[in-house]
Specification:
Layout: H1 4-19, H2 26-34, H3 42-54, E1 59-63, E2 66-70, E3 77-81, E4 87-90, H4 93-103, E5 116-119, H5 122-134
Parallel strand pairs: 3-5
Antiparallel strand pairs: 1-2, 3-4
Helix pairs in contact: 1-2, 1-3, 2-3
The structure holds zinc ion (2 copies).
One zinc ion binds near residues 23, 70 and 89.
Amino acid sequence: MVDTRMTNQRLKIIDYLKSVKTHPNAKTVYEAVRKELPAITLATVYRNLNLLAEQGEILRLEINNEYRYDGDLCKHQHCICKECGEIFDVFHPDISDYALRKIEHDDFHPECVNIIYGGTCKKCLKEKRLKKKTR
Ligand SMILES: [Zn+2]
Ligand SMILES: [Zn+2]
């Protein structure tokens, strides 16, 4: 038997994740979903997020010792700014395909790959340059 209440919560979580590009953490997801489902608890949101990630319905990224969630399942990579902590999507399916193909061998069959680039975003680069100039 399907627990319709659970299903509804899960759908709301997926809907929210698909509507944002920010890769929120569980607490942000909870605060957003709570607006429509006031009875939901943070523990329930955690449980559903982990379940959805295990089922491959959403992506779970571990960034700075924290789980962040992504509703975008198409092959993409992430860029993380070390200055402001923002996460950006970049879409180069060929990079993911190559990374998967390269590791394919008898002992291991890769099904997914998470590519995370560390660096500095445009906004922070600009600020850095401005600071240098004023010195
Ligand atoms: Zn930045
Ligand atoms: Zn993403």
